[in-house]
């Protein structure tokens, strides 16, 4: 009886979801001028993948101006997600329904645009990209390339991308960097690649360089450098 209770207790502890916090500081593309802060509360499943990601975006005075929720209900790479930008009174949503993704954009509470996109096992969306990197970390780190169909919610569409190691890390290097670039030779001229840097040992995200998922307050696209740590933000 005692043994049975102990086994149930151990199983219960091992299957309990783990909740972590990750903090990001987003700079302009020079990496010098701070633009905003990110606070991510990440619930991991028993295999260490993101199960729920709740993000707050703060200005330099630590006032929240946007938030995002990504929930991985049935797909490891394509979460149901909702992004709210209070500055622009804009909401972007993605709802996965079987093998289809319903994408919508709302302005001031009114639906402005909507599109249903068919998906397959190659599809990745939003914060599902971290799960994709973790799933294929060893393959990518060893130099293999992976092709994905990335859903770009603001454009209500998807594009073919290729993920690869940027370069072979030096011996005993603590980090590894991956490059995610659009696969189309024609579109490469119009879309800059994304670079993500990870800790090789614990596989934690350290840095992101590329197009932000947030527009500026003037609703303009922005290239950013986001550095991640375990340190909460402080006002300037």
Instruction: Choose one word for the global shape.
Output: globular
Strand tally, please? 15
* CA distance, first residue to last residue: 58 Å
SSE string, helices as H and strands as E: HEEEEEEEEEHHEEEEEE
The value of Rg in angstroms is: 19 Å
Indicate how many domains the architecture comprises: 1
Helical segment count? 3
Helix content: 10-25%
The main sheet comes to: 15 strands, mixed
Strand order of the largest sheet: 8-7-6-5-4-3-2-1-15-14-13-12-11-10-9
Mean pLDDT level: 90
Q: Which band does the percent of strand residues land in? A: over 45%
Q: What class do helices, strands and sheet pairing give?
A: mainly beta
**Low-pLDDT segments:** 2-14
List the helices and strands and how they pair.
Elements: H1 2-15, E1 18-28, E2 34-44, E3 50-58, E4 64-71, E5 80-85, E6 90-97, E7 100-107, E8 110-118, E9 123-125, H2 128-135, H3 137-141, E10 146-152, E11 157-165, E12 175-182, E13 194-199, E14 205-211, E15 223-229
Parallel strand pairs: 9-10
Antiparallel strand pairs: 1-2, 1-15, 2-3, 3-4, 4-5, 5-6, 6-7, 7-8, 10-11, 11-12, 12-13, 13-14, 14-15
């Amino acid at each position: 009886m005692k043994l049975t209770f102990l086994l149930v207790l151990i199983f219960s502890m091992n299957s309990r979801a783990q909740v972590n916090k990750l903090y990001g500081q987003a700079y302009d593309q020079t990496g010098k001028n701070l633009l905003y802060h990110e606070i991510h509360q990440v619930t991991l499943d028993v295999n260490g993948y993101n199960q729920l990601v709740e993000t707050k975006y703060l200005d330099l005075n630590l006032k929240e101006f946007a938030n995002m929720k990504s929930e991985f209900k049935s797909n490891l790479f394509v979460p149901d997600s909702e992004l709210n930008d209070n500055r622009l009174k804009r909401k972007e949503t993605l709802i996965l329904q079987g093998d289809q993704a319903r994408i919508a954009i709302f302005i001031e509470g009114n639906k402005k645009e909507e599109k249903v996109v068919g998906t397959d096992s190659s599809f990745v969306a939003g914060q599902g990209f971290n799960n994709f990197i973790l799933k294929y970390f060893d393959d990518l780190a060893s130099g293999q390339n992976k092709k994905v169909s990335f859903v770009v919610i603001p454009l209500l569409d998807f594009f073919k991308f290729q993920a690869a190691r940027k370069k072979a890390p030096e011996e005993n290097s603590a980090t590894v960097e991956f490059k995610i670039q659009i696969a189309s030779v024609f579109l490469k001229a119009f879309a800059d690649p994304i670079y993500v840097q990870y800790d090789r040992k614990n596989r934690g995200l350290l840095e992101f360089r590329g197009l932000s998922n947030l527009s500026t307050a003037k609703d303009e696209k922005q290239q950013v450098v986001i550095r991640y740590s375990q340190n909460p933000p402080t006002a300037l």
